[in-house]
Amino acid sequence: MENVRRHIPFFSRRRWGVKNHAPWSAIIQHTIHQFHENDLFTPAAAMSYFGLLTLFPALLVMLVISNRFAAGSEALARMVEVYPGSREFLRATVRSLKDVGWGGLATATVVTFWAGSWVFAVIERALNRIWGTRPRAFLHGRALTLGMIGAVGVLLIVSVFLTSVLVGLQELIDQLPIRVVRRSPWMEMMGNAFWQSLFATAGALVTVALFAVVYRFVPNGRVTFRDTLPSAIVAGLLWEAGKYVFASSLQYFHYDEIYGSVGAVVAVLTWSYMSSLILMFGAQLSVVLHQEHAGAELAAETPASPS
Questions:
Q1: Closest to 116 measured CA to CA, from 81, 67, 73, 79
Q2: Residues 290 and 225 sit within 8 Å (Cβ to Cβ)
């Protein structure tokens, strides 16, 4: 039995507890087909709209927190880094918000929770459609959306903590008298690549955790982490890869010449829409994998008919 396990490929669904026999190409094709059938482009557009309404008030709230707590500035930087290609614009926006009074802060807090709750309300409605489950009662649904906003905040804190730990380790190791590393440019370059990959891995883990939490708790049905973890990993890797592709492609699309002063806002909205599409794709993939798993279990439990 141990030899059999040893020969299971790393990317096989059996290794991740998904016991079905359909090839990955059929799984992806079925997911794309169901994605179109459920018209997930529309909720993705609604998510990006409410996400844009949430972004700038949330930046203002985080700016006030960063002025009072040291970790707040790091959390603010993490929020800005979510939007590739618009970081300078968002940093300039944050700098322009420093003189906002308490009335503006109160308004920003209300708008953040209101628009943020609508982001998760749209996600809940779309995921219930994907899973074929009934929507929750209004108060129950709003309580869930507020809880998801809190979960995002917790994951943001976790991201800041992981980054701080890695930065501390990097500074500690840099202070060690390792003469070979310091004298060799090649070793120094390898060390920089190692730390960059480590930071990227930590960010990817937080992203996967966020997708897994959304896929597990937002649908109004019995969903397990076994159903959501493979799709969360796929969506998380797609999001991390899409972030670099989107940032690299912006230099070939002169959006500022087309949209003028609002070009950076259009870039933010475009990336929000792409992120929403990735989230919806992962949600649809989790349902397809669940159906494949249930079909495989049913086939295994059904006794073979006598010939």
A1: 79
A2: no
Supply the DSSP symbol for 252: G
Is 231 buried (19+), middle (13-18) or exposed (0-12) by CB count in 10 A?
buried
If one counts every other C-beta atom within 10 angstroms of the C-beta of residue 1, the result is 5
Spatial CA neighbour of 230 closest among 7, 10, 1, 8: 10
> 109 burial class (0-12, 13-18, 19+ CB within 10 angstroms)?
middle
Q: What is the mean pLDDT of each run of 10 residues along the chain (307 residues)?
A: 44 51 80 94 96 89 75 72 79 76 84 92 94 88 87 83 79 65 58 78 90 93 86 94 87 78 86 95 93 61 52
The pTM score is: 0.82
How far apart CA 138 and CA 157 sit, in angstroms, is 29
Question: How far from 186 is each of 116, 175, 176, 192, 286, CA to CA, in Å?
Answer: 46, 18, 18, 10, 43
What is the spatial distance between Cα 59 and Cα 116, in angstroms, rounded to a whole number? 13
